[in-house]
Amino acid sequence: xxxxxxxxxxxxxxxxxxxxxxxxxxxxxxxxxxxxxxxxxxxxxxxxxxxxxxxxxxxxxxxxxxxxxxxxxxxxxxxxxxxxxxxxxxxxxxxxxxxxxxxxxxxxxxxxxxxxxxxxxxxxxxxxxxxxxxxxxxxxxxxxxxxxxxxxxxxxxxxxxxxxxxxxxxxxxxxxxxxxxxxxxxxxxxxxxxxxxxxxxxxxxxxxxxxxxxxxxxxxxxxxxxxxxxxxxxxxxxxxxxxxxxxxxxxxxxxxxxxxxxxxxxxxxxxxxxxxxxxxxxxxxxxxxxxxxxxxxxxxxxxxxxxxxxxx
Length: 312
Known about the structure:
Elements: E1 7-9, H1 12-24, E2 30-32, E3 46-47, E4 57-58, H2 59-72, E5 76-78, E6 82-86, E7 92-96, E8 100-103, E9 106-108, E10 112-114, E11 130-131, H3 134-137, E12 145-149, H4 153-163, E13 168-172, H5 182-189, E14 194-197, E15 200-208, E16 213-221, E17 227-231, E18 234-237, E19 241-243, E20 274-276, H6 288-308
Parallel strand pairs: 1-2, 1-9, 2-5, 9-20, 11-18, 12-13, 12-18, 13-14
Antiparallel strand pairs: 3-4, 6-7, 7-8, 10-19, 15-16, 16-17
Helix pairs in contact: 1-2, 1-6, 4-5
């Protein structure tokens, strides 16, 4: 089987940007699109913060445009998913559900997924009042009442962010104290339009299925199991993200949260010739535009690596 110069694992903004840049460099990249081609933007409706578009665009449409651009420059996209990798060999060995591939460089862009609670109504109203990204969707709830679920740094950061946009933000946590850093808690408690409800968990999301509009939630007291209803305009689930790095465990250096570790200001991993871009390594920003930027970095660094190896 022919050995690729660049093999990209995963799609989405990071993967497609890596494909565009590496294909324009004449590297003829091969992309294994993954289980969910396009990543998290495929379940995002209006996108207003991606540069270059005056009016809102649809997440799936943006991913389709990136895919077409990648293919136009010569990227070969295979609809399959990687089951195992062997970075101890060179060229690197990549096994998918269907085939085995070899490549002189690898760009990992498998992304991350928001953790969800799995309560009734959650799946039905994703993208229609239920979100896992305040910086992505908070603007749609300007001067409205929203609820955030969680108690860690993510939940507190998103609550603070939303408090600058929304009329009122209610943070619901299942325990009697937050897990977030103290400095974040201090900022949170200074907010006059934020209410914290302790010792409660989300039980159900209720809305209008026909109009795809949430109306209220049911929460349950974790102490006495009493139930209450809260009327709201939007709900943000902020219980963290899980990077898709299972197949890279014991193959690359990964932090305690499962994110691939890269060198400072770089997409280089601890294996020379293997790069990681986007949400699979970024636990801070998690934006489409930053993922695309990292995909660009990965492609440029892969090109430099191949040049150094005199692989043309």
